[in-house]
Specification:
By secondary structure, this protein is mainly α. Helices cover 76% and strands 3% of the residues. It is globular and about 70 Å long. One of its GO terms (biological process) is transmembrane transport.
């Protein structure tokens, strides 16, 4: 336990150091020299210990980043969190239903999934926005807010847009993990003692693939972060990436990266510890 804690602490320290150095890299690239780069690194590291003093320039005025930035963090992670949960839930349900289909139908579904995975994220967002606008123009029914204006914050449509491609990714991955589990001995043993296919899938195989899915979902999270940049721009959302794009400075860039990294890092590290102390990395009957 102590060794795990030391390992996690070192990983966290190295990652934070790397983010700070990355945030200061523009100073070095501007030709200011290694001395200016070093001083900026020290300034940002010291500023992170006093986040309430971090400021950005808006016009000719220095504006404190916090507490305004806190709302942006909460908003962005609300969208990401619900989108990830929606993608995970829908992909698992679709996977179980797909695995219960006849083999020929299942192969066609898998082919369709592989084809749709290459759809650009910006196309998904624009099509869904266009769909909502068209419904409103034709029927007068406003399904949801399509853009952020003043105090109006869209939630439903951004969450749907952000979850579409991750759902396809997790769906494809879940099918692959399901098929890997089916090649093992315990599903055959369970079937031989009279357990129904649906029961084996849901109670035994699903439990095991959830463990593997958690470990491999990190790629999906980073994919969602890249989509978040496009999403917040197209919906005019004042989230984390808005500050990065509009107030490009080493201080804002570093703070934004840390705001994204720290919650995700803690989520996966605590999740890994929980899984290792409960079910390990998957088990049979």
């Amino acid at each position: 336990m102590i060794r795990n804690f030391i390992g996690i602490t070192l990983q966290f320290a190295f990652a934070v150091t790397g983010i700070v150095l990355l945030g200061c890299l523009p100073v070095l690239m501007d030709g200011n020299g290694i001395s200016a780069f070093f001083h900026k690194t020290v300034d940002i590291a010291a500023g992170l210990l006093r986040p309430w003093e971090i400021a950005y320039v808006s016009g000719d005025v220095d504006v404190k980043l916090f507490p305004e930035f806190t709302d942006a963090i909460i908003y962005s992670f609300t969208l990401m969190g619900f989108a990830f949960l929606a993608a995970l839930t829908v992909s698992i349900v679709l996977t179980v239903l797909t695995m219960l289909l006849p083999l020929a139908v299942k192969e066609r579904v898998k082919l369709f999934v592989y084809m749709t995975e290459s759809i650009p994220d910006i196309l998904v967002i624009l099509l869904l926005q266009l769909f909502v606008i068209t419904i409103y123009k034709q029927t007068g029914i406003k399904l949801t807010t399509v853009i952020s204006i003043m105090d109006s914050k869209p939630y439903v449509l951004p969450i749907i847009c952000l979850s579409v491609l991750p759902t396809i990714q997790l769906y494809r991955l879940s099918i692959y993990l399901f098929e890997e589990e089916l090649r093992k001995d315990y599903p055959l043993f369970a079937a031989s003692v009279g357990l129904k296919k649906a029961f084996i899938f849901i109670v035994h195989i699903l439990r095991n693939i959830l463990v593997s899915l958690f470990y491999q979902s990190k790629t999906t999270i980073w994919f969602m972060l890249s989509n978040l940049l496009v999403l917040e721009h197209l919906f005019n959302i004042f989230g984390i990436t808005h500050y990065v794009l509009k107030y490009m400075s080493p201080e804002v860039f570093t703070t934004a990266l840390l705001a994204l990294f720290i919650p995700i890092f803690l989520f996966y590290k605590f999740g890994e510890l929980l899984l290792e102390n409960t079910v390990g990395r998957g088990e049979g009957i």
